[in-house]
């Protein structure tokens, strides 16, 4: 395990030099335990502002666990314990005085299966701004809803049926509705946990196109099982294996000539 | 990162695809070597029937290149290869291209052998060509072995040695020009011989291309150094003897 940790520090030392932007999210020596199980071991990584960072790795490698540390979703699991430090804009998100609800407004999340509320399309988007008190009038709320749906590339498809149920949309539209819902509270970071695994190739392409547009304004972290998707949408890729980050680097380098043998074996489909 | 200890793919058909590409390329390499050797042999022994056989063999090289290209494209479409696998597929495409060009250059030598049939041919003039051809053949053989073994050090040696072929070509160029000036009856033959020598020199260049591809295949980065070059024939002037 020592060798792993060394390799990890080395590649990260080299990687921080060419992050390709200011670091928005910085994690240092993050450890996660589920009861006795040590799920994440000394994870350190920088994620650049307004860029897409992809986490890849086999099932159970810790990538989703780490993603959920970034908006403290793991707090909801009673046996889960997190140590180490994660900062967003130099602000420690595990600071005890921090309001977790505010944090989750700044760090939005999109899940594997689209999960719209059983409400109208309008209400799905308006819900967040309403509980956070972001709109003072109906007109302002209308504007937020339209703007969010436009940014999620869904507006043209739903503008004539905003009062229809959100669950009546197609899978791909539902996922874009969830992205609109996340955007509505003006987050800075959007976490995506396999956002396309339940979608067909066309819907997937639309989400990928959307991710590319969203990165102008947001810092995006995406967990994906699709190697090709990571290669297509991200600027940087981190490869997780057995709870550690094996290698982090520019996506084009990870997918053409990775430094670590384990990364190569995984992305080329050679893992035993 | 060498491929010799690479574990198999989970999808074994992927390994079969890559192996087939490698096998076809090995076959093509063997054929290219044979074409170069036989075309030069035909030139030195003025063997027109052999030259005709060389021209026929070139078709097999073209066919193999097509097969490799189709197979490589299909592999990219089906398997979406990345990292070392992607470099393997790209390398096979590039090397197949170089080998196809080598086949064409050998065929061109063979055509000249047929054109020279029955012409006045002082045998000593061909010696220089024999020398440069031997050196080039050794380079080609070496670089193909380096490919089979994914040995970038050997490939790099080939790459560095190409300067010798270039220098030989430049001195051969001067020598042949001198013969032409000595006796105008040499001109026809010498001009063909000069093209043959140029073809051989370019075969050497393709061998260095293959060496560069092997370097990229193994290391994942292109070879950025400037290659030592010794062909100065493009800027060589020879004065006609006065008086």
Gross geometry of chain A: globular
**If you compute it from the alpha carbons, what radius of gyration of chain A comes out, rounded to the nearest whole angstrom?**
19 Å
Distance between the termini of chain A: 19 Å
**How many angstroms does the end-to-end distance of chain B come to?**
65 Å
Helix content of chain A: 25-40%
Radius of gyration of chain B: 20 Å
Organism (chain A): Methylopila jiangsuensis
GO molecular function, one term (chain A): phosphate transmembrane transporter activity
Family (chain A): Belongs to the ABC transporter superfamily.
GO cellular component, one term (chain A): plasma membrane
Question: Can I get a quick summary?
Answer:
The complex is a heterodimer of chains A (272) and B (243). By secondary structure, chain A is an alpha/beta fold. Chain A is built from 11 helices and 10 strands.
Tag the structure with descriptive keywords.
heterodimer; A: about 270 residues; alpha/beta; Rossmann fold; six-stranded mixed sheet; four-stranded antiparallel sheet; 11 helices; 10 strands; disordered N terminus; B: about 240 residues; mainly alpha; Methane Monooxygenase Hydroxylase, Chain G, domain 1; about 75% helix; phosphate transport (chain B)
Can you describe what's shown?
The complex is a heterodimer of chains A (272) and B (243). Chain A is of the alpha/beta class and 272 residues long. Chain A has helices spanning 2-17, 63-69, 100-106, 121-131, 138-151, 155-158, 171-183, 201-214, 227-233, 251-256, 261-267, and strands at residues 23-34, 37-48, 52-56, 80-88, 91-92, 107-110, 189-193, 219-223, 236-241, 244-250. Chain A has a single domain, classed as P-loop containing nucleotide triphosphate hydrolases (Rossmann fold). In chain A, helix 4 packs parallel to helix 7 (171-183) and helix 5 (138-151) packs across helix 7. Chain A is globular, with a radius of gyration of 19 Å. Chain B has helices spanning 12-45, 48-79, 83-115, 126-148, 152-182, 187-219. The interface between A and B is medium-sized, with 17 and 19 residues. Chain A: This is Phosphate import ATP-binding protein PstB. Chain A: Part of the ABC transporter complex PstSACB involved in phosphate import. Responsible for energy coupling to the transport system.
